[in-house]
Amino acid sequence: MTTTTLYLERTSALHRLNPVTKLVALLSIILAVFAVPHWWIPLGIVAVVIVPAAVLGRVGGRLLRLFLILLLPLLVVLFLIQGLFYPDGSTVLWEWGLAQLTTEGLLFALTIGSRLTALVLGSLVFVLTTDPARLMSALTQVGMSPKIAYVISASLQIIPAFQARAQSILLAQQARGLAIVGSPLKRARALLPLLGPLILGMITDVDERSTAMEARAFGATPKPTSLIVVPDPVGERVARWLMFLSAIAVVVLVVVGVIA
Amino acid sequence: MTEHDRETERGGESEGDRESERESVTERESVKEATMANANANAPMIELSGVGFAYEDAERFTLANLDLRIDAGTVTGIVGASGAGKTTLAKTIAGFIPLNEGGTYRGTASVAGRVLAEGTLSEAAAAVGLVTQNPFNQISGARFTVREELAFGLENRSVPRDEMELRVDEVAARLRLEPLLDRSPYALSGGQMQLVAIASMVIMQPPVLVMDEPTSQLDPAGTRLVYDVLSTLSDGGTTVVIIEHKTELLHEHCDSIAVLAGGLIVQHGTPGAVLADDRLTSWGVGETRVTTAARLARERGLLPVERALPIGVDDAVDAFSAAKGAAS
Predict the structure, then answer these.
(1) Spatial distance between the Cα atoms of B325 and B313, rounded to a whole number of angstroms
(2) A169: buried, middle or exposed (CB in 10 Å: 19+, 13-18, 0-12)?
(3) On chain B, which terminus has fewer CB atoms closer than 10 Å, C or N?
(4) Nearest to A213 among B28, B91, B140 (CB)
(5) Beta-carbon neighbour count of residue B304 at 10 Å?
(6) Reading across the β-sheet that carries B128-131, which strands appear in turn?
(7) pLDDT of residue B8
(8) Which of B279, B280, B276, B309 has its CA nearest to residue B294?
């Protein structure tokens, strides 16, 4: 399937869950890890919830690869900058010129880094195990406007649409002598003639696309049906409310000072 | 989540939802039923009287005082040179002009006695299905598989899920799209995408189907498949209007052909009469290859001048047999 999403088709309990349940779980985790000012809470959630979920969803390998490619470089830079140049650091562990490795700096980097890890890994598990078509259907089932669902789905598909069009324009221009090989600068220059037709073409297509959408009755009824019906058992609905209320409770406890 | 899992998912719909769906289906069917009911044997299904249209800021009228009558349940081909106004005519029959297009419009266009310009675009779309020229733009851009893409229009019409599945399977079988059902619409070739675009409109079962160059990217087998489906639809009562350059196909499958030139219908009649018209090439319409061959044969004295030029292969065999018989 040519889409911009990272979804991996697997057979697992996590894949079968209603996408809205997974979305609420993700949002609850994000709310909790950003509310609680302790680095070990996000790391605990990663260890106890997110990694086991990835294993359960049979996407652990891909998650690890994405962690190494996307997140690890970011965490290294974060620890280097905050650890060595934290402005309010007073407990110096090591210093070299302007760079001072401080306990405060390391703790700050750990707090931010652990939150970021929970946020990114949690989101990746969600995206890796959630079929975008099911997600859109499930969101529409719980009351999201079909027009908003269309916009989100169309945004997810816009990259393959752009790729397909760009490829045909590039082929046409190569057929007329445009050279796209050589140095990076030369290749970048060769892309300039692509941009005009690509963008203008997409804009002029809007009119015909809108005609086609009208012909296919888009917006004809406020409550369209769906080919994909996502089961939403009572247990999952209850779980969603529990997760949401727990996250709110954590925020309240932090605000009133019970969790400090 | 496999496609099989998706298909076997049940239980999300309550009885109330199903009841609501049934009511919606009744509503969306009303325009279609009214269109079919209004179509009687004597009145034309499509009638354009004195229709003119000029796009905003255009110096001339693309359609100029045009008259056209098309009977119910027939297949009508529209031919004309590039820029003759064929796409504009297709949009006018479908009601998109003037409902969705700015410009100067005059005259009356009606389908089954209903003047589409007096209703809403949604009502017009329920009465007339329009397949646009570029299949890339007919794709919704918001569905992840061909199966979901085919169901898109049915979802918008609140068709119940069971019926949707049946119709998707049926149209996929008719246009041989089964192997593509689980692929992304953007992973298709131009021809495959065109078949999906056609299927996405056929599946909505409109009383009138207008198709703007629907086979431009198809191979001969795909083209034949589309025409076979159109013939079946026509046999079932659907009125089909097809804009096409391939005159051989029009001769074979159409009940009538209309020639559009200078914004007017300059000739409208049976395929035999229209395609044998000596003025055809002057209107920018290519004659069939059989006619071209027969014309050359006539110039060389192989066919008598008084005999009408053949259009199709069968006519040509008859003409040459007669000429041979006369010569011997």
Answers:
(1) 18
(2) middle
(3) C
(4) B140
(5) 12
(6) B128-131, B208-212, B239-243, B75-80, B256-261, B264-269
(7) 36
(8) B309
d(CA B64, CA B55): 12
Complex-level ipTM: 0.70
Structure tokens given for A87: 């402005």
Chain A residue numbers with beta carbons less than 8 Å from the beta carbon of B2 are 9, 11
A162 touches chain B (CB under 8 A): no
The tens digit of pLDDT for each residue in A171-218 reads 888 787 777 777 777 777 777 777 888 888 878 778 778 888 888 888
Amino acid at B108: T
Distance CA A95, CA A100 (A): 4
Concatenating the DSSP letter of every residue in A140-188 gives HHTT--HHHHHHHHHHHHHHHHHHHHHHHHHHHHHHTT----SSHHHHH
For the whole prediction, is pTM greater than 0.95? no
CATH T-level topology, domain B2-283: Rossmann fold (3.40.50)
Tell if the CB–CB gap between B152 and A216 is shorter than 8 Å: yes
Residue A249 and residue A180: Cα distance in Å, rounded?
58
Domain layout of chain A by residue ranges: 13-256
Tokens at B251, concatenated: 């001769």
Give the pLDDT confidence of A2-20 residue by residue, as tens digits. Answer: 455 788 989 999 999 999 9
At B154, phi and psi to the nearest 5? -70, -40
CA B196 and chain centroid, separation:
14
Q: For chain B, list the strands marked E by DSSP.
A: 46-55, 63-70, 75-80, 103-111, 114-115, 128-131, 208-212, 239-243, 256-261, 264-269
CB contact under 8 A, B140 and A205: no
Q: What would the two tokens of residue A1 be?
A: 């399937």
